[in-house]
Amino acid sequence: MASWPKSSWKKLTHVTDWYKTTSSCYVPRWGRLVDRLCSTQNTFKLYRSDSRNTFCRRYSASSSEYYFPGAVGAPYTDKLECIAGEKEGRIPCFRIMNEYGEISSTVSKQHHPDHQLEPVMMTSMYQHMLKLHVMDTMLYSAQRQGRISFYMTSFGEEATAIGSAAALETADVVFGQYREQGVLLWRGFTYRDFCNQCCGNALEPAKGRQMPVHYGSKELNFVTISSPLATQIPQASGYAYGMKLSNSRNITVCYFGEGAASEGDFHAALNFAATLECPVLFLCRNNGYAISTPAKEQYRGDGIAGRGLAYGIDSMRVDGNDLWAVYFSVKEAKQRILETGRPLLLELLTYRGGHHSTSDDSSRYRQKTEIEMYSERLSPLRRMKRFLEFRNRWNEEMDQSYVEEQRRELLSALEEAEKAPKAPLEDLFNDVYDELTPHLQQQKTKLLEFLSRQKHPTESS
Ligand SMILES: Cc1ncc(C[n+]2csc(CCOP(=O)(O)OP(=O)(O)O)c2C)c(N)n1
Ligand SMILES: [Mg+2]
């Protein structure tokens, strides 16, 4: 690919007339160049900035090069080139801590946990990963015992949730998919809040009208989960656009899986965010499976990060099982989004350690050895535990007593949630609109009439 001929460009000291963002095939993949096109009657001016300077080049409409508005800066060539859709090379995956919990000897100070975090914060992050693991284990069993109707675990993905949540502020608004309960946990959602929602009792904000795991919290800026896949992605672009209009100093964060990235909504959302320059972090948890569909059947090309580049969105790929890589990449992503006012796509490579949900049996479509390999060797929990053990901040005994304490706490929250009353039947109709509409009033009357004619199962016929 041709290099950028800086010599033919005029260097500017002041640029006031930014007009329109474009992408350019001159821009190197990981470069920081930004192009802006400005057109006046017959001339186009192309402004190109790197992180330090801005350059300008003029083109007239009659010029034989560079002025197609659909791909400004595309050089002409008389050699027909078909660019390979499946490239050999892959976007590299950022990793700081290996599977033994050792920190890379060449990592910069800026990305070194020992230089950037207090010990108490490191321990707290690990404890939250453990809490998440305990909660998932116990609520999964509770579903198997018939105590709740449905559950989704995030086994193997503990670092994606806790690492990203710890790098954000609660004022950053989260649009989740359904496997990000760790973000809520980090923000202060309690075991009681989780259990109330999963039991669908009257104490939870949706009053039992949602399926289990469809959490939401206004106070914690976590938008309620929607079942239809990818719903949250265009919503997040729109929300971020609103944040931009209100000059917010926070960002929108949108979590989704690689399977959801096959939905049309994903593409619409990325294009809106790119063109409207929305401060949104698209955070893809690429865990290798969309229920029973493995990633290799889900898409071609270089994963999900490669798609960000196609939309002109800065993109990064990170080891989602490495808590530190997740933490530092999300920190940096947020900073970049706030600096540039543009979206960023972060692909976290991880592995879905459990079944898709309690309605799934993954042994039907993947080998036990595969699960063992990922869950044992690449476990984010094990890596982090070793990291803390090397620093004498944790040991096996502490691990066991912490898990035991959390189990007791979760169990008591679950028992309380089971005993709590269910919301009255009328609440099925309340809160849908500010006032009950005539058609809902009609449905409510019919339902109450119908139920008054039914006998309770304990009554004899
Ligand atoms: C519109 C729509 N289509 C299909 C489904 C069924 N469905 C629920 S989750 C899922 C797979 C999603 O996979 P991915 O986005 O990779 O997330 P993961 O479960 O791996 O975390 C599918 C197909 C749905 N909920 N909504
Ligand atoms: Mg997936």
From TrEMBL:
It comes from the Eukaryota. The branched-chain alpha-keto dehydrogenase complex catalyzes the overall conversion of alpha-keto acids to acyl-CoA and CO(2). It contains multiple copies of three enzymatic components: branched-chain alpha-keto acid decarboxylase (E1), lipoamide acyltransferase (E2) and lipoamide dehydrogenase (E3). PANTHER family: 2-OXOISOVALERATE DEHYDROGENASE SUBUNIT ALPHA, MITOCHONDRIAL (PTHR43380:SF1). This is 2-oxoisovalerate dehydrogenase subunit alpha. InterPro entries: Alpha-ketoacid_DH_E1_comp, DH_E1, THDP-binding. Its cofactor is thiamine diphosphate. It is found in: Mitochondrion matrix. Its main location: mitochondrion. GO terms for biological process: branched-chain amino acid catabolic process. Pfam families: E1_dh (PF00676). CDD domains: TPP_E1_PDC_ADC_BCADC. The keyword Nucleotidyltransferase does not apply. Keywords: Metal-binding, Mitochondrion, Oxidoreductase, Potassium, Thiamine pyrophosphate, Transit peptide. GO terms for molecular function: branched-chain 2-oxo acid dehydrogenase activity; metal ion binding. GO terms for cellular component: mitochondrial matrix. Residues 127-424 form the Dehydrogenase E1 component domain. Its EC number is 1.2.4.4. It catalyses: N(6)-[(R)-lipoyl]-L-lysyl-[protein] + 3-methyl-2-oxobutanoate + H(+) = N(6)-[(R)-S(8)-2-methylpropanoyldihydrolipoyl]-L-lysyl-[protein] + CO2. Belongs to the BCKDHA family.
